[in-house]
């Protein structure tokens, strides 16, 4: 990482950032209404941020997950979730869908990934997860572009 100064795009265009926060609030309502576990929601945020390499969001959502009671082991093995027994069928479907949405350049959301999610998740859950991933990807890009500081 370089130390070159960056524009904080959220501060530069506060109305756009406020709109993103409002969208995030709506996504939060959707995940709650869809009955998704708050711990899973934090794991989805963390996984999105891992894929995008967003240290700021990783730190924030890891702390949030731990405060909510998430098992540190689940956070530690999150990048290799498919290889562990820590995650339920619902967790796995949500993680797979979130990864597919986040990794769009790798081939968009394939029918295989979507069908695997649809086999386990309700339509409300799929939609809520998609909105959560969309918002999280946007926040990652704001933080990465603006180089939000992390650590010393």
Brief sketch in words of this structure:
The chain is an all-alpha fold. The protein is built from 8 helices and no strands.
Count of individual beta strands: 0
Percent in strands: under 5%
Distance between the ends: 13 Å
Mean pLDDT: 95
Helical stretch count?
8
Inertia-based shape: globular
Q: Which regions contain 5 or more consecutive residues with pLDDT less than 50?
A: none
- Topology as H/E string? HHHHHHHH
What structural category do the secondary elements indicate? mainly alpha
* Rg, nearest Å: 16 Å
Please render the helix and strand layout as text.
Elements: H1 9-12, H2 14-33, H3 38-52, H4 55-67, H5 72-76, H6 89-102, H7 111-118, H8 123-146
Helix pairs in contact: 2-8, 3-4, 3-6, 3-8, 6-7, 6-8
């Amino acid at each position: 990482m370089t130390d070159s100064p960056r524009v904080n795009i959220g501060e530069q265009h506060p109305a756009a950032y406020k709109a993103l926060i409002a969208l995030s609030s709506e996504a939060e309502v959707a995940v709650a209404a869809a009955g998704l576990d708050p711990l899973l929601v934090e794991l989805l945020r963390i996984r999105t941020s891992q894929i995008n390499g967003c240290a700021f969001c990783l730190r924030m959502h890891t702390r949030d997950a731990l405060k909510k009671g998430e098992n540190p082991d689940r956070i530690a093995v999150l990048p290799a979730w498919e290889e562990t027994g820590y995650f339920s069928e619902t967790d796995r479907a949500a993680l797979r869908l979130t990864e597919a949405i986040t990794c769009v350049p790798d081939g968009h959301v394939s029918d295989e990934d979507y069908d695997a999610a649809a086999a386990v998740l309700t339509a409300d859950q799929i939609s809520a997860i998609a909105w959560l991933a969309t918002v999280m990807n946007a926040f990652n890009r704001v933080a990465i572009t603006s180089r939000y500081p992390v650590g010393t």
